[in-house]
Amino acid sequence: MSLTLKLMLSPLLIAQAIATRRRAPVLAEAVGPRAGRLGGRGRATHVLIAGDSSAAGVGVARQAQSVAGHLTHALQQRSGRPVQWALQARSGLTTRQVHHMLQAAPPAPVDVAVVITGVNDVIEQLPSRRAVQHREALADWLLGEGLAAHVLFAPLPPMHEFPLLPQPLRRVMGDDARRHNQALARWASTRRDVSFLPIALTLGGDVMASDGFHPGEPVYRVCGEALGRFIADELIPTETRT
What we know:
By secondary structure, the protein is α/β, with parallel strands linked by helices. The chain has 9 helices and 6 strands; from the N terminus they run ααββααβαβααβαβα.
């Protein structure tokens, strides 16, 4: 959608956004441990999962069903190595706010920091260029402080398929999410210490949470397993693999 058309539709889009916020049910973050260790042989792979409501497991009951649960299990199964993991996430955070959260409570150093943000950047109508700048600042801080050897960014979901969103708001937010992903992919391709992993998703009421906005376990499973496999295959140093 062109910027001109988006501006012409802005009164309708604002009204739809306000109405959607009012009718959307508020779902709790998943319960359960936010740190742990999975067994295996050899040196442990240390992983941080940081982000917004999708990282926090909103939409499922337990952390074992969330992206963190599926990611760590897939990583351990794929690599055969122990996995030491921690989750720092909170609903409603933009990428910049995730950065501030981590600065307030710095995590222990890890091999890979997985960052799951972006939907709230779109909701706040942050331009994709600015969103990438915020991701770059977060990555540079994690790497520069020795808190991560590599930063892996998960993609924004296909927001044009969110059942909760009415048209044309759904299309506009979906177009924005695609632009954010494209900008993030271009930037990450210029870095050796940062990765972006595209994940193909098809959403709908049968795989989404009851609010029609957050992922259900099928989505968390696909994303978590893809991220876990990528870490095992591409990011773990050769000497730590089986």
